[in-house]
Amino acid sequence: MRTAGWYGLLLIGVLSCVMPLRRGEAVNPETLFMPGPLSAAHQKYEEDCSNCHDRSNRARESQLCSGCHKDIHNDIATRSGFHGRLQAVGSAQCRACHVEHQGRKADIIKLSREQLNHAQTDFALLGAHDNLTCDSCHRAGQPFRAAPRDIRSVTIVMATIAKVPSSAVIPIAG
Ligand code: HEC
Ligand code: HEC
Ligand code: HEC
Ligand code: HEC
Predict the structure, then answer these.
(1) DSSP secondary structure string for all residues of 15-48
(2) Most C-beta atoms within 10 A of its C-beta, which of 9, 76, 127, 168?
């Protein structure tokens, strides 16, 4: 009887250590095996690991990513956009560049704005455009691909006057 009591206390002790961390959430016990929480963008998929993992076939994981990220998949298939122009992106795993399980606030893109070669996109920056800041054309919180279309048409005009010294060109937007 006495021993059973101790086991009871021990059990309560163990549970009270584990439970408060997870109170109020419906929990898939598999989340205990995660290296860390997912980034905020993927938070709502955390409960179902099979969204991104296939234990029997790890090579399929990038396909799982692409299943949701159809824009990226399409870029790769048509060799357009940033992803479509990456060398050997077909064979590269998405995870080679996009980390996960590093917490809600983790930056899973890690783009170096300084190092980006804009000719690696659908839209080479010509002449005066090279001097514009990224934010002149790209809005914070939106994917880079969402740069407004009209910038493209303005730019065709700008490209024709690219030989004019950049100080003489009025920056568009912002
Ligand atoms: C939104 C996609 C996504 C979901 C959902 C997800 N993971 Fe991951 N997981 C990743 C990515 C990407 C990596 C590779 C991380 C890296 O290399 O930095 C990874 C890596 C891991 C690793 C390290 C071993 C390995 O395969 O590299 C474990 C273990 C893991 N995940 C477990 C889980 C578990 C358990 C769940 C569900 C409770 C889960 N993951 C849900 C994307 C996800
Ligand atoms: C079940 C659907 C789903 C799966 C599977 C999924 N994602 Fe996502 N992902 C999303 C959604 C929704 C967002 C937020 C909106 C957006 O940016 O498209 C997002 C955002 C992202 C972002 C942008 C994050 C940011 O901070 O802007 C990256 C990069 C990304 N996912 C990469 C991946 C990779 C790599 C995998 C595979 C390991 C993956 N995703 C699997 C749905 C998914
Ligand atoms: C060589 C590195 C690299 C690889 C491999 C890679 N990405 Fe990316 N990804 C980036 C960079 C850099 C950005 C930020 C630039 C941009 O928005 O295009 C990005 C942006 C993204 C975004 C957010 C922007 C958007 O347009 O929605 C998503 C989602 C994404 N990648 C998904 C994927 C998926 C899915 C794969 C695998 C099929 C993948 N990436 C492979 C480097 C990579
Ligand atoms: C003159 C306007 C302009 C400036 C300045 C500019 N961009 Fe862009 N950018 C665009 C346009 C337009 C696209 C093509 C969008 C599309 O795919 O339709 C683009 C595409 C991109 C892409 C590829 C998106 C993808 O997934 O294919 C990335 C990444 C990017 N820009 C990053 C940057 C960064 C970083 C800077 C600053 C160093 C910058 N851009 C400056 C107009 C600009």
Answers:
(1) HHHHGGGGTTS---GGGGGSSSPPPGGGGGGTT-
(2) 76
Cα 36 to ligand 2 centroid, rounded to whole Å? 16
The Cα angle at residue 61 between residues 59 and 62, in degrees rounded to 5? 95
Length of the chain equals 174
CA 64 to chain centre: 14
Q: What are phi and psi for residue 27, nearest 5 degrees?
A: -115, 130
The pTM assigned to this predicted structure is 0.85
Q: Determine whether the shortest distance from the Cβ of 46 to ligand 1 is under 6 A.
A: yes
Per domain, the residue ranges of the chain are 26-96, 118-168
Over residues 59-111, the pLDDT tens digits come to 899 999 999 999 999 999 999 999 999 877 767 789 999 999 999 999 999 89
Cα 55 to chain centroid distance, Å, stands at 22
**49 in ligand 1 pocket by Cβ < 6 Å?**
yes
